[in-house]
Design brief:
Layout lengths: L1 H38 L4 H12 L2 H17 L4
Length: 78
């Protein structure tokens, strides 16, 4: 039983390691896309913000924007 548990643990660890390597490769690819966008004149920071906004649910995005507008108004930023 212990050997089976050890094998399973080893396999799980190896899967995580492979996925971490894939994640590293994907992160490099994403950085490359942002670099390409910047090279043709797009603002990578704004693109990252747009990507984050697109990930949000519409209701959550509207609520966040509403609170942000409230905070900006309170601080005299608008």
């Amino acid at each position: 039983m212990a050997e089976t548990t050890d094998d399973r643990l080893r396999l799980l660890i190896e899967r995580v390691e492979r996925l971490e390597e894939e994640k590293k490769g994907i992160a490099e690819d994403i950085r490359g896309v942002y670099a390409e966008a910047k090279a043709v004149g797009y603002d990578a920071k704004i693109m990252r913000r747009v990507v984050a906004l697109r990930k949000m649910k519409p209701d959550d995005r509207r609520e966040m924007e509403s609170v942000l507008d409230l905070y900006k108004a309170a601080l005299g930023l608008e």
